[in-house]
Amino acid sequence: AWLLVNTFLNVVGAGGIAGATKSLFGGGTSGNCIVAKQQKGIDGGAAGGGGQLTGGQPNGCANGQTCQSNGKCGPAQAKCGDATCTTGQVCSTDGKSCVDPQSCTYGGGSGGNEDAVRQQLAAAGVSINKGVCSPPDDHSCGGTPPSCTDVGGMQSATISQIINIANACPGCGVQVTGGTEPGHACGTYSHGNGYKVDLHPTSGLDALLKSLTYQGTRNGDGPGPSYGDSCGNQYVRESDHWDATIKATCSLGH
User: Fold this and answer.
1) What is the largest CA-CA distance in the chain?
2) 75: which strand partners?
3) How many CA atoms lie within 13 A of 153 on its CB side?
């Protein structure tokens, strides 16, 4: 009997004992993976008969799992920059923060043609200061803005956020004064690409947007105090309008 035990120890090795034991007695993911990560030969190796603790990772967790703070194996969590998201969260579009996918809807592509978007906004009590441009599908940047306002081709998140603003500010008379018509500054998150919208300032709208997180003063094109909501949208109070850059949809209600 002593010879058999000695032979077993020599073949398996100190590091392979955990793997061999796991192979013999099972155990799933109930072990402490934090402790397991500190053990040498935790995966059993060839000498351990393939007896990984749960899969083949050095932390003892199955592939697709990670070692949680409680010492148990669990679903792999998203990494956003230096942050580790909690289970169920995802990275924001800029990859810097964790967000709840139920609280923010990102991008979404074009929300529809001119007539469809105008009808959607009107149904929410949002007005548009001027008539449709001709042609209504010219979203070119640069030059002089025409005396008209387009909303066709806006991102669906932009449309939804305008409606959220109107819902959070009943009686404010939310009005779009700048949309996707030509003549605005160029850029990825621009008017022409459907991410930016200009809103007519009122005392009620001022109060709502200034209650958001103050971000300092934006300099350069359209300078003014800047405020941000929980989804990373930016609202800048320029001299005669609110310049909003919308990348996501989230509630502004208090």
Assistant:
1) 97
2) 65
3) 20
